What does this fold into?
Amino acid sequence: MPITTIALDADDTLWQNEQFFRLTEQRFADLLKDYTDAPDLNQRLIASVTRNLSFYGFGMKGFALSMVETALDVTDHRVPGTVIAEILAAGRELLSYPIETLPYVDQALDQLQQTHRLILVTKGDVFDQERKLAASGLAEYFAAIEIVADKNAATYARIFERHTDGPEHTVMVGNSLRSDVLPALQAGGFAVHVPHDLTWSYEHAEEPVDEPRYASIRHLGELAGAIARFEAML
It folds into this structure.
């Protein structure tokens, strides 16, 4: 049996996402410039976001709360309430940015849905991910949609069992080595990395270059070729 199911990540694989968080980080720094001269403000914000993942999960809500926490921390709680309100407003603006699909997305999904079952596997805030999927116009391509709190080997094993013919017939595609590639391989599937210039540092990991079930492509226009190479192995 060949590859029958292709699972795809959403943020920064199908559409732009990280660039809007970078814009919000800059807005955050601008709002605090009169209240702190901390040279490592961005690093402290990212540390707070990472530390809070186990409490708030991935997505804009946790990011907004982490901005508030960082603002209070770096100013010794001297930051005015008006600035906190503006920080929260900047976080809410993450919900208003337009959805920009990445190159070759529509062509790749249109081609691959004719020969494979497509499923979406994304993590983050359910409300925000559902909003972005609806705005993208891509929902019709997917036979199943999984919005999960985190992506690890157990998550993929459950999804593969629920929606596929088994991990040995499934490919996971995404921009994150940490979340899309390595745990999918650990769960027994194939994995394709589609690097994005702005992938969050948290998602970086060592590339499994010696793994035959792994491939890296420049964009989704090359996905069909990568899957054909996997199928030649079966």
In short: The chain has a mean pLDDT of 95. Residues 18-32 form the longest helix (15 residues). The radius of gyration is 19 Å.
